[in-house]
Amino acid sequence: MAKNPVNVLILAAGLGTRMKSDQAKVLHKLGSRPLIAHVLRTAARLDPDRILVVVGHQSEQVMAAARAALDEEMGSRLRFIHQAEQRGTGHAVKCAADELRATSGDLLVFYGDTPIVRSETLSRLVDQHSSSGNAATLITIRLDNPPAYGRIIRDQSGRFLKIVEQRDCTPEQAAITEINPGFYCFNIAALLPALDQLSPQNAQGEYYLTDVPEHMLTAGLPVGTLLHDDPHELEGINNRTELAAMWRRLRHETLQQLMLDGVTIIDPESTYIDDGVEIGRDTIIHPQVIIEGESRLGSHCEIHSWSHLINVEIGDHCHILNGSVITNSRLAGHNSVGPFAHLRMNAELMEEAIVGNFVEVKKSSIGRKTKAMHLSYLGDATVGERVNIGAATVTCNYDGKQKHPTIIEDDVKIGSDTMLVAPVRVGKGAMTGAGSVVIEDIPPDSLAVGVPAKVKKRTVG
């Protein structure tokens, strides 16, 4: 039997009052990404026809974060549903009714604050729902001391009857250990009329999505459950203590997997690596290193203590020395950076280029076997191969109104304390004397010295 098309609806409209924050709950970060980004990336792995996100508090910011989480192809399937007034989970799904009427197949519904649910778990739910022909299928879990979740009520034969929210439970119902963590798969055609039957006649005066399965059963439609054995995977975030605990869990799992894959992490307790980071085998991570975002590190690298890497691409056999910060930049391979270096804004080092202590490289390309060993700033620069940048060299790229480029061709030697006032070009094989201020282009194979620098002689011929 062919599977129905799968659609996803994520509930992300709430503020999250227990976070004690002016920021919507799903915008709080787990690692370097907001909660909504984790959830959306998991949903995208199911290859759904549509991803619907119900937004409310700080909707513009939530929508921006959602768009940023997905690639262009999956982003084209993203739709937003506005819930202006939060009147419960059932009301949130009712707000999507018009969109759902134009959609066929099944609908997977879960919360935007459940960032570590695995796509494999969601696939199991969808597969069981599809194979059983249910109108609704929901995940259940068992906990000895249940938190404030709805209880699963069954008849004497063990068949599902309904969900009762904790605030509406009798003492006997509150003692039930099987609970509803909030993951559902619905047949859309069966869901829509059940939504119309919801009413706010309950302790919270809200429209409960948890009432939908009971309405389906009353209409003679089949409802099933899937008991999941890892309740921690399905946990939502309610406060900052839970957020920190989940980050510890996710960090531990990430580090454990990296080590099993051949990465040496000397002190896992002090090392912070995002779950999306990729690291090649035989790379060594020293204590107190932070690696975030969409970072990719090659094999046989060594990252020393106190370094912070964000959205980097680092080739094989690279050494990042103590206290270096690299963001949104690329190292081709066999590079050395630091100690205490700063690469940012699409800085790029070609193979065997070296950036030493207290050197900053911003939005610049540094050529193969080029060296900038100490105390220099290279901004908006294109530096060729085999160039030597003397200590305290500065590309003066800003004139007070706009940035200008500096071009340094191959085999150039820049003397210590040279100021290169952009826009300026230093020709192949040229040299500058120490303390020079270069305000005009220097021809190839020439020596320029002075303030302002003047060409004194040819260095070839």
Helix count? 10
SS strand fraction: 25-35%
Number of strands: 43
What are the segments in which pLDDT stays under 50 over at least 5 consecutive residues?
Answer: none
How many structural domains? 2
Globally, the shape reads elongated
Mean pLDDT: 95
Summarize the helices and strands and which ones pair or pack:
Blueprint: E1 6-12, E2 29-30, E3 33-34, H1 35-44, E4 51-55, H2 59-69, H3 72-75, E5 78-82, H4 89-94, H5 97-101, E6 106-111, H6 119-132, E7 136-142, E8 150-154, E9 160-164, H7 171-174, E10 178-180, E11 184-187, H8 188-196, H9 212-218, E12 223-227, H10 240-260, E13 264-265, E14 272-273, E15 278-279, E16 284-285, E17 290-292, E18 296-297, E19 302-303, E20 308-310, E21 313-314, E22 319-320, E23 325-327, E24 330-331, E25 336-337, E26 342-344, E27 348-349, E28 354-357, E29 360-362, E30 365-366, E31 371-374, E32 377-379, E33 381-383, E34 388-389, E35 394-396, E36 406-408, E37 413-414, E38 419-421, E39 424-426, E40 431-432, E41 437-438, E42 446-449, E43 454-458
Helix pairs in contact: 1-2, 8-9
